[in-house]
Input
Amino acid sequence: METRSEVRRKQNQQEVTNKNQERPRHHPIFIIWGTLLVVLLMVAITFNQTLLSTHFVDYEITHTNLSSTIMDTVDNNLSQYGISTSAISDKEANKLITQAVNQVYSGQEIELNLQPVLAGVNQSASQAAEQYGVELPNSITSGVSNEISGAVNSQLNTPEVKQITNAISIAKIIDHLLMVISLIGLVVMVLIAALRKFFSRSFSWIGLWSVIIVYALVNIFSQLIIQIGNQYPDYSSFTAQLSTDFHTQALNYWLFLLVLTLLLFIWRIVSRVLKRR
Output
């Protein structure tokens, strides 16, 4: 006849066996793959909404000295045709910069539409002449207008700009592929974890490791932007603001991941308490 100690020992062994059977096989590998996919997805989303976003880059350019650098190129070309640099207002300058950014991020050459600016010059000259009773013919014909636009755009379409355009096009393709692949992979892993009933246990750890890695990557990328900017002193203020705004925007997505991870850990704690009851 079995003693009480032997019965308890068998019960404990049975409980350990049941727990081991409930645990998923290759659980560490599952966490590693899940962490990799989450990190890739977070990086892809962050870049898609910052450095690869026309709205983000347009805002950065129009709010730094880089906009002045771009407009200096335009003004220098206009001055060669006797057009005052004051012909372009800040509002028009921002519109031209937005055009250039959209064209570069679409993989196209820069073709700024200077017709509104040149039309404004004609109107200003005519109004000034009318004060003296003089009627001027169109001072800037369509042929001259096209010549001016062509000269300005050729100055902006430098080899460096073309390289940046090609690099952005490639980066956007890679970013979209990473986003799709990582998202599909995570959906499959979520279904597997849900069906095998270890979703909260595995994805809470996946979230924790992802939070740590993504935070480190955000700081690394921010510092890389500053280091690249140090190689070009003329654009140092632009890259400094770009780094700051990139860091701020990236941390918003990181905080979202952090909140989801905390909710998963809270869910695990609550589930354990309810099971014990």
User: Anything to note?
Assistant: The two ends are 34 Å apart (CA to CA).
